[in-house]
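Weekly modeling sync, notes
Attendees: S.R. (lead), two postdocs, one rotation student

Agenda item 3: backlog of single-chain predictions. S.R. asked that every request posted to the team notebook include the full sequence so nobody has to chase files. The rotation student volunteered to paste the first one in as an example of the format we agreed on. Action items at the bottom.

Example entry:
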Amino acid sequence: MTNGFKYLAHILAKGVKGVFEPVTYWYQEIGAHVGHLVTLIEKDRENNILLVQQACRPGLLSKNAQVVEWSCKFFAKLALEFTNKQMMPLAWEWFISEHGGMQGCLLGLKRHPQLAESIISVLVQYARYDMVELFTIHLKNVCPEPTEQIQMMIALFKPLTESNFTKDEVTKFEIVLSHHLIIDCVFRSY
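Predicted structure, as returned to the notebook:
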């Protein structure tokens, strides 16, 4: 803990001597006890929300697809608990920050495109009430190049529109997003 979680980050991203089963098991265990973890986080919300999320973030960047998948399950559960405990504003700030959860999710998606649905579950839980903001403002911060934004939207929109949970919401603002992105791309080209 004293060196900024460097050893934990290394293990979560690269495994224990290249073996990923202990990391997968760790995410399964903390995911199973996420309610208790959030109760502990509540004792010092300001510091602990950032601390726990940042410590667990490297799993989203793992070389191993199973670790990324279990990491996504953990973060989706964590975000749901934060919502239930009215702690989401602080969690959201970390999520959209530089080197936060959104960036981790999108880097994980680049590395493991087959896990789009798992990554979307995290995005949906964190951006539950801010989906338009997520795609119109914060996606630009993580993917500053218009072509990268378009590639990311393509990777995300199909699974988002196929999900029963997000289909209606995506359909409502799909036109807004495409209009916003087209205008932005045109202005950047001048």
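Discussion: group reviewed the output briefly. Residues 83 and 128 are 9 Å apart (CA to CA).
Action items: rotation student to repeat for the remaining queue; S.R. to check formatting next week.
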